[in-house]
Amino acid sequence: MTAPHIFDRALALKPSGIRAGHSTGMTSADYWNMIGPFGGTTAAVVLQSVLQHPDLLGTPIALTVNYAAAIEAGAFDVQATAVRTNRSTQHWTVEITQAGAGGAPHVTTTATVVTAARRETWGANDLPMPTVPAPAAVKRISIGPTGVAWTNQYEMRPISGKIPATWDGGGDHSESLIWLRDADPRPLDFTSLASLSDMFYPRVWLRRARHVPAGTVSITTYFHVGPAELAAVGTGYLLGRAVGQQFHNGFFDQAAQLWSEAGLLLATSNQIVYFKE
Question: Which CATH fold would you assign to the domain 136-275?
Fold first, then answer.
């Protein structure tokens, strides 16, 4: 029997039986960030709680995750609730909580998910994939800084907009292009696509060329494909593009897109990020 992929182990949720949609999980040291789990993994856990719910309708089209507090290492609880089900769409709320020092639970993450039963219609893509070198022609970067384990779980081949080599305040743009995939190949699905949508370092670092403290407050990801299109991607690379839009009084937003190697737009996201001067 094949062992579960490291990402699937990080997303493992066990129904508690306390109430419908309630489950428990454990943080993964393999996807640890500076002071808590990698935000993409947290988003994937949120989505997983909905995808494994017995009342699920359709497939994900939108996911919003609000990071209220860092999740501490250890156990956590997830509550996924279907608040409205229509003929073709379903609306969910999700909360992640942890027991505090006194035993009382506190909320670390709030989220909403929208799923839908898609039907075949006319379609078009007004955001074509940029023309870039093939993944094999782009050098893979080494592992990330000490204590940031999650970067080791992804293969990254940056084309442009790398993290500045010197923090000299001389940045003049905020756009990055990069090929991405799991370091240990894993077929793409909605949870991994949600995680990959949060792969991009804070745009303020590139725009300012200053390594200021920064962290995502809220991210929304839109899914533009279904299971068949994800299956066609398999373990292939995704091309990611990220760019900042407005930097103002301690917060900025950055937009991102993910395409398959074949040029299919898979997901788009936008997040609001805190930064400190």
Answer: Porin (2.40.160)
